[in-house]
């Protein structure tokens, strides 16, 4: 929606802000996990297992987010220029394209050392994210009309 209302350059700024906030969150979690727990805290092991993720999963998330959201902003912008009155087309197509790429990148990086078949994970993510991407299109259309620009 940022691309629709403010354009591609502001979308890129929002993508970078989101990525930086994810990096900051990981830094804060690492800092918190490095502190000694309070003596009365009985759930340190559970805390550590919840808030300690594998490096590959974190890296996969960052790379997939940055690449797929950059693609989304590019595809959406191109479709907006080519088809200014086709809001459903640009929303649905850019969502499916970026969510598919996000799934491929994330699963490939996060689980390549796990020794498990990656294709079923990728297909499952592509299908579920694709459905969610298509289901959010009516919300996007409504929001565009709410703003009075569509």
UniProtKB/TrEMBL annotation:
The chain crosses the membrane at residues 12-35, 55-75, 96-116. Coiled coil: none annotated. Pfam families: Vut_1 (PF02592). InterPro entries: YhhQ (IPR003744). Keywords: Membrane, Transmembrane, Transmembrane helix. This is Queuosine precursor transporter. The lineage of its organism: Archaea, Methanobacteriati, Methanobacteriota, Stenosarchaea group, Methanomicrobia.
């Amino acid at each position: 929606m940022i691309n629709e209302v403010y354009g591609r350059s502001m979308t890129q700024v929002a993508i970078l802000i989101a990525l930086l906030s994810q990096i900051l969150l990981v830094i804060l979690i690492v800092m918190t996990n490095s502190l000694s727990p309070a003596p009365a805290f009985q759930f340190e092991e559970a805390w550590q297992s919840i808030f300690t993720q594998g490096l590959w999963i974190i890296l996969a998330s960052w790379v997939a987010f940055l690449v797929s959201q950059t693609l989304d902003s590019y595809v959406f912008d191109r479709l907006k220029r080519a088809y200014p009155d086709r809001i459903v087309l640009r929303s649905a197509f850019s969502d499916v394209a970026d969510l598919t790429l996000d799934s491929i990148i994330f699963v490939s990086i996060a689980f390549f050392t796990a020794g498990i078949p990656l294709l079923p994970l990728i297909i499952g993510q592509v299908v579920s994210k694709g459905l969610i991407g298509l289901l959010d299109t009516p919300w996007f259309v409504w929001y565009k009309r709410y703003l009075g620009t569509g």
